[in-house]
Amino acid sequence: MGNRLTKICTRTGDNGTTGLGDGSRTDKDDPRIESIGAIDELNSALGLLLSHELPDNIRDRLSRVQHRLFDVGGELCLPGQADHRGVGAEQIEELETALDELNADLPPLREFILPGGCPAAAVCHLARTICRRAERRLVSLNKVEDINPADIMYLNRLSDLLFVMARQLNRLAGKTDVFWRHER
């Protein structure tokens, strides 16, 4: 990074616009900014999850995901110049492998699960829902301009992984999943 931020309050966004990585400005509600913001929100939720006591295998995976999401955000802030180095088939496969490993010893699902359980699992479910929103924002952006299609696939796999991680965290905490009761 060539220039470091030394002044945080610049007032340049007071008119409802924000700067992109290429120096251009765009509206703060532009689909690109909505996508970047959703990725940032997801990364923040993962940071909250990482503040909990977690098994090393989950902590390490989430840490790698945080860095990868930062790459995706950086890629999105450069319209028309994305080099697609942030996410590709290898990163998607890494999530799929983790998903299979963490799901292997969980009981099969017979009911829908409500977000909850132990605190870490509840935060993991929150991150999952934010991930789904980020995915929707990227799909919307992709309708108006081409983005790296692997970014959408990555978020789709990540939300699945976060679901399985939440189940795994409940299991490790000695909690059962919170099942939806359709007959209350």
Tally of distinct domains: 1
Shape: elongated
Number of strands: 4
Low-confidence stretches: none
The CATH architecture is Up-down Bundle
Global structural class = mainly alpha
Query: What percent of the residues sit in helical stretches (DSSP H or I)?
Result: 55-70%
Mean pLDDT: 89
Strand adjacency order, main sheet: 1-2
CATH-assigned homologous superfamily: Cobalamin adenosyltransferase-like
**Proportion of residues in β-strands:** 5-15%
The major pleated sheet works out as: 2 strands, antiparallel
SSE blueprint:
Layout lengths: L16 E3 L5 E3 L3 H20 L5 H21 L12 H15 L9 E2 L4 H26 L4 H24 L5 E2 L5
Antiparallel strand pairs: 1-2, 3-4
Give an overview in words.
- The chain is mainly α and 184 residues long.
- 58% of the residues lie in helices and 5% in strands.
- It has helices spanning 31-50, 56-76, 89-103, 119-144, 149-172; strands at 17-19, 25-27, 113-114, 178-179.
- Strand 1 (17-19) and strand 2 form a beta hairpin.
- It is elongated, with a radius of gyration of 18 Å.
- The termini are far apart.
- The mean pLDDT is 89.
Brief write-up:
With about 180 residues, the protein is mainly alpha-helical. The chain contains five helices and four strands.
Characteristics of this structure?
Hypothetical Protein Ta1238, Chain: A; mainly alpha; two-stranded antiparallel ribbon; 184 residues; 5 helices; two-stranded antiparallel sheet; single chain
